[in-house]
Automatic annotation (TrEMBL):
Domain called Zn(2)-C6 fungal-type: residue spans: 21-49
Gene Ontology MF: a single term: zinc ion binding
One of the Pfam families matching this protein, by short name: Zn_clus
InterPro entries per UniProt: Transcr_Regulatory_Proteins, Zn2-C6_fun-type_DNA-bd_sf, Zn2Cys6_DnaBD
Keyword set includes Transcription regulation: yes
CDD domains named in the record: GAL4
Organism: Venustampulla echinocandica
Protein's name in the database: Zn(2)-C6 fungal-type domain-containing protein
Amino acid sequence: MAGSVVARKRNIECRTKVKTGCTTCRIRKVKCDENKPFCQKCVNTGRTCDGYESPFRVFTSQPINSAHAGGIKSDVGLQPIRPTFIKIAPQDIDLLNRYFSTKTLFDVKLGCDEEARQVLQASLTDPPIRHAVLSLRALREDLETSGDGPASIAQQTPSYHYGLQQYSIALGGLASNLSSPGSNGLKSALLCCQIFISIEQVQKNYATMAQHIIRGLRIMHEYRARPGFVAANKLVPAHHDQLPLLDVFIIKLFAAPCKFADPPATADVSGTTSSMCLISPHQQPVESRNLRTIAPDMQTELTRIAASTLEFLGKVSQVESVGVALRLLSEKAALLDSLESWLLDLELVQTEIGSPGPEPISVSFLRFFHLILKIILLGALDSSPGLYAELRTENDRLQGVANNVGERVRAYRTCSGTSSGRGERSIVR
């Protein structure tokens, strides 16, 4: 008898600590079968399954550094809480909405509440999305705690290393899911893509960010997230009408104001001043000040075109007849003409100003946004044979602008004493 009691006690003591599963099983410290939406272990024992908590649930009440001390893995640090089942807290949505972008000023509201809600909802049951959200959470805490990037690898924080670890896990999990993509795998890929774009912004890896954008938009187009023509006057419905609308998310992301608003200085022959360092506005040449003044006006017009593009995409998602779709093609052509006119105006302004140095980073971001809008519009309602070649050309241009922006921002940070030396992460291939 005594032996059996000792054996039972040993079994209890040797149980693996529960780190995943539903909230109920974690509180009871028993292994959860992790069935969704309700775990069968709770159902079979007559208990109420309290679901799977949001990875943002404890952000405001528990510092990440303490959760990551000692190289903690995936879900450690999420203490058992009893949230309302599949109800995302408004503060979590607000926080993720803010975390989506670092190109903008930190207090700008992007209007991505619905996108944030979709991501957090999916993170409750989709491991790659969950790990991606945890990565973004940790990297943003590192950014806001340490400033705009620590000065050396030696100063990188546990939050930063944890963020990279979670990013790697998310990339690996998504690659596995995409090996045989169904509708769930595609949804996971597009939601992950939203977070990956934000993660690369945090790390200032704009070249890699552009790769995520290009691949995500390609997935939307190839798997027909919206209705489109496959031949003249032959309209086909959306193949996957429940896919996340990544193009809408990207437009909202880049329509926000850019925080890199100052023009660069001229290189000092002695080497004491970087060619990208900032100087006092009173010391700037008249041409640079004029270009700095023009940029917000160009942003306003491009934002107007972006708003019209969002309205157009909403109509495309709802189109059901060939007649309506043909009228939308005329609207698409007008939007593309507006983009072309905007670009001509920008080139004209720069020619008139005649600034000798590189254009402000904010203007480079406008070029990036212009190309994003053009690529999104080109793919709308169209599957013509020549489309892929045209998209490939524009994607190459987008990648080139992103590479330039990345170099400019790195120089900006180096001049400001915030260069981090952090490497880029690879996109899922």
